[in-house]
């Protein structure tokens, strides 16, 4: 079983695909990626981890996410910053404190409050960080040669409708970091040549005038006039060359299906940090050349199914930090050229492998959580590369956990094995009860096996866990381990409940004739195991419904799921831990409390009480420890489950602490509580050791009254309750004594 995982990690591929009859590329299995032109394939996690695993360095090539505008402008525009200027100034007129080079003029931080007088043949005008608060009509009308205007950091509030009139040659217009709230209709009317329009960090609320409709009629009329004049709601109507539009950090709430109509040349569209709540169908349908679209940090809750259908050339799409509730299963189906998809902080309840398959060129994908990466096996680089439980390097990130997993595994296995051995060696009068205890120990022992496996795999992957994380969670050993732990916990819980209920009937109804025979007990025990097996195995039945039920974290225990995981898994886990187990826990607590009071009452009724108070304390102690160990074990689990129901985010580390520290407590303590501390056991052990030490002496030890009562726990309990003396000495011995 252990070797299985290793076998699947390195795959030498023999299949080749002939593409175009000439190019030969290796075909890698799902989740694996080729080593350049070698025939070797390595899983995703071996790529871009800083280690040359291929041998030719191919796995460390092309790791950065360079898609989007950086590459687009590298190829479309050549080197943008390739300007060779002389020091000479060709402008006759320009303000003081400005800096002129050929026909380019920079007036930065010069306290200007309007556009100054400048020679008309200026080609670049930078008025950054001045005090220009408005741009009047025809502010630039003289500068017909102007190609670039920089107006950042001016707190421009008002731009007159004709401010940019006459700028027929303008290519680049920067208006970022101003106080612009609206873009009046027709203000970009003459900018036929404009390619870059940068408007980030303004309080612009709308770029489409559609939303005006419905206001008072007078206003509406004037708007209609404006429409007729400039068709302002179509941003690109008069700017057919518009290539780069940056509207980051504005207050845009609405986009309409005509906002970007006729923006055929648009390659980069930035809309992050706005308040867009809804993007209607066909909003981007004209953007045939769009290469990068950034809609991150908005308030988008739904995306129409066909929104991205026409973006045939899109390379980079950023949808991160939107409160998206749902992604259609074919949402990204037509993005054949997409290379980078950012879905950080988005929950995808219906995540599905088919969602990402059509994007053949996707090389980078970013998710909210690590587990989603298993749904995009065709993508070479997936972030984040680890979950909370495990660190980048190690399965168990915490060194205390690493040590304790072994300690607890040892205590659990050893304690239970000793008890099984002892119970078999020492012949008990009540064999049915002994059988139940032995079976309980068997179940608890499985927990030890589980913990040993966790420890083993932790060591195995030490230092390079992130490479194997997904493979590990998907692997058979992980699933088997998870189901083993589940089987152990559930059988243990059910058995404890059964033992408690049995004891409860004997003590609380001492005269009733409900008494289980050996055969009935055996039947019940078998049922409990069958139930345990069913509970553990059910998630294997339907991969569709449960997904990978066990492999949701490094320790393979299905304790916690975040809100988005498969509803099947979540519901099942909830039903088991907060349904079955909570019920069992309540039954146990209730039974012990009732038993305690019942015993106390019987004791009080009988006058001749030897050591009355001592007995009470002893009984209370023992009951307390049984209930207490159950509580330590289960209350953290219940709390986690209830918190997750209340949608509280639970860090992944909590799961590993609960699974390794709290859950096994019961398994480790059960042998002590149910056997090792009972007086009879101690007596028998003493006897046994005695006999072995002095074999020559055949001394038949007189069986004490108390001894016989303890061992036969339940059958003689009826007597025991009546006979306080026996009771005090035997069953209810406190752990400390
Ligand atoms: C792979 O490509 C490298 C150069 O990129 C070349 O030197 C090498 O011979 C190629 N190997 C094979 C097997 O084609
Ligand atoms: C870039 O600069 C070089 C000289 O440094 C010049 O030869 C080349 O034509 C320039 N390219 C562009 C696109 O301006
Ligand atoms: C710019 O215009 C001024 C007159 O306003 C003229 O003297 C100068 O030569 C012109 N420069 C260029 C580069 O055309
Ligand atoms: C835009 O949406 C409206 C309804 O909201 C519809 O009548 C119109 O046809 C749509 N326009 C385009 C180009 O899809
Ligand atoms: C997507 O947008 C967010 C925030 O706007 C940013 O932090 C992140 O780096 C972007 N993703 C990519 C792949 O550029
Ligand atoms: C993927 O990208 C490469 C260039 O990186 C391009 O040649 C190829 O056509 C693209 N594949 C698809 C399916 O578009």
From TrEMBL:
Keywords: Cell membrane, Disulfide bond, G-protein coupled receptor, Glycoprotein, Leucine-rich repeat, Membrane, Receptor, Repeat, Signal, Transducer, Transmembrane, Transmembrane helix. Residues 415-674 form the G-protein coupled receptors family 1 profile domain. The keyword Cell membrane applies. GO terms for biological process: adenylate cyclase-activating G protein-coupled receptor signaling pathway; hormone-mediated signaling pathway; male gonad development. GO terms for molecular function: G protein-coupled peptide receptor activity; protein-hormone receptor activity. PROSITE patterns: G_PROTEIN_RECEP_F1_2, LDLRA_1, LDLRA_2, LRR. Gene3D superfamilies: Low-density Lipoprotein Receptor, Rhodopsin 7-helix transmembrane proteins, Ribonuclease Inhibitor. It comes from the Eukaryota. InterPro entries: GPCR_Rhodpsn (IPR000276), GPCR_Rhodpsn_7TM (IPR017452), LDL_receptor-like_sf (IPR036055), LDLR_class-A_CS (IPR023415), LDrepeatLR_classA_rpt (IPR002172), Leu-rich_rpt (IPR001611), Leu-rich_rpt_typical-subtyp (IPR003591), LRR_dom_sf (IPR032675). This is Relaxin receptor 2. Residues 1-21 form the signal peptide. It is a multi-pass membrane protein. Receptor for relaxin. The activity of this receptor is mediated by G proteins leading to stimulation of adenylate cyclase and an increase of cAMP. May also be a receptor for Leydig insulin-like peptide (INSL3). Disulfide bonds join 48-63. It is found in: Cell membrane. The gene is Rxfp2. The keyword Transmembrane helix applies. GO terms for cellular component: plasma membrane. The chain crosses the membrane at residues 403-425, 437-459, 479-501, 522-541, 576-599, 619-642, 654-676. PANTHER family: GLYCOPROTEIN HORMONE RECEPTOR, RELAXIN RECEPTOR 2. It holds the Pfam family LRR_8.
